[in-house]
Amino acid sequence: MDGMGCIRMKNMTDIKETKDNGAGLKLSRRLSALADWVPEGARFADIGTDHALLPVFLARNGKISYAVAGDVHAGPVDAAKRQVTEAGVEAIVSVRLGDGMTVLSPGEVDTVAIAGMGGSLMARILDQAGERMKGVGTLVLSPHVAEDAVRRWLVEHHFVLDREMLLEEDGVIYTLMRAVLESDPGKSLIRNKQLYDESLLSPGMLKVSATLLYEMGPLLLKQPTDAFHRKWEQEIAKRERVILQLNHASAPEAAEKAKEWEEDVREIREVLSCLPAEKRSSN
């Protein structure tokens, strides 16, 4: 990060708490937050639905007009069908077995949620959707690793982040993001250029590299919370363990790779040290 410096000026754990639909179904704080971001009256799809907790909750609360709950595994699909039947929302929620967004027809939904998987897989699912993305204007996402892969996919496909959140639950820090489609490619280019501007944190910091903006999240960097700092201190610790392993490796390329990781850690530490303390708050 050359020139940067400070200027001194989805699983069963999701069934437990917080939101209740009045019929005994409760969501974890993570799923509750995702539910809050689904637009009113949405035609909704939950990809990798597991037990269909999210679409059932939304249907029971009258927030969505229609939903597809898709999963690639037969066991969760059977469990989802039971959940839908018990909740009495069969007329609203359609449970389907299939890989990724193959469970959808083009134009069938306008809002898609994907949570509880890695960002690279999430981006691949979106990329392979093809015509099934037709009509989709809102994406509600929660990748548990490789968040940068998701943010890059969004930019490349004219989606613009409008919300990001870190939420800590049971010792795990989850990343949540929502993006909306900008139908005019020119406008999406301008909006994303502004969003990922390397002078995002000025005047408190001279420059944040584009790579780090995609990794850390532009909206999260603007309003860093205590959870944000904890997440990235944990990430530093992970990277330092990798560096230690590389320094003990005999392969000739290991030393060069270790230097790259050391530079990553230095950049992250510098960003954390430069973030305005007055913006830190707990989730």
Offer a quick outline of the entry.
This protein is α/β, with parallel strands linked by helices. It has helices spanning 29-36, 53-60, 74-87, 119-128, 147-156, 185-195, 210-216, 218-222, 226-247, 252-274, and strands at residues 19-20, 26-27, 42-47, 64-71, 93-97, 111-117, 138-143, 159-169, 172-181.
Structural features, described:
Keywords: Methyltransferase, Transferase. It comes from Cohnella luojiensis. One of its GO terms (biological process) is methylation. With 283 residues, this protein is an alpha/beta fold. The protein has two domains: 12-195, 3-Layer(aba) Sandwich (Rossmann fold); 223-279. It contains ten helices and nine strands. It has helices at residues 29-36, 53-60, 74-87, 119-128, 147-156, 185-195, 210-216, 218-222, 226-247, 252-274; strands spanning 19-20, 26-27, 42-47, 64-71, 93-97, 111-117, 138-143, 159-169, 172-181. The strands form two sheets. It has a seven-stranded mixed sheet with strand order 5-4-3-6-7-9-8, with helices on both faces. Helix 1 crosses helix 2 (53-60), helix 5 (147-156) packs across helix 7 and helix 9 (226-247) runs antiparallel to helix 10. The longest helix is centred in the last third of the chain and has 23 residues, at 252-274. The radius of gyration is 20 Å and the shape is globular.
